[in-house]
Amino acid sequence: VQPNNYSTFYDDQRQNWSIMFESEKAAMDFSKQVCIAKCNSSPVLDSVLCQDLVLGEGQGVETGDSLEIAYMGWLFQNHGLGQVFDSNVNKDKLLRLKLGSGKVIKGWEEGMMGMKKGGRRYLIIPPAWAYGAQGVAGRVPPDSTLVFEVEIKRVKLVKECSGSEGQSVSSRDSPAPSPVPNSDGFSAD
């Protein structure tokens, strides 16, 4: 994924191909289909597939960073997107997550590493990296492969936690007001 609706790909012979799309949506839709095609062409999906949709700005996130995330999750069924089983896209609250805390499925932790603020990524997560053989009663059948579209709305880097006197140092926040109360050191400006 490149700025101005470009995407760059390599073929089997490592030749570079650049494609320009008419809109950001067309570029994102194409990138999603590339990720689904990668999944469908894998004999066994044994790791998380990641496809950037929007690169974002700033430093890549790593273990210990606190994030606020908008997401949508689908079941992967019949070689494509099945039903939505979870989403916070039309809700007031973003998901708050400290990367590496183990509070979300392993595939999310792995798939979000290196993302940047404002970045959007498509993740296809095999059962072993998701809910495994147990699934989630009433929502995720056992041994389900999951698809997520995640967007990092706000980031607080672990290195920005405190200044030399222990005072809070501003994080790289978006200019929009936070939809959740000010806590955990996130500033609301």
UniProtKB/TrEMBL annotation:
Residues 64-156 form the PPIase FKBP-type domain. One of its GO terms (biological process) is endocytosis. This is peptidylprolyl isomerase. It comes from Anhinga anhinga. Its EC number is 5.2.1.8. Its main location: other. Residues 164-173 have a biased composition (Polar residues). It comes from the Eukaryota. Keywords: Acetylation, Actin-binding, Cell projection, Coiled coil, Cytoplasm, Endocytosis, Endosome, Isomerase, Phosphoprotein, Rotamase, Transport. It is found in: Cell projection, Axon; Cytoplasm; Early endosome.
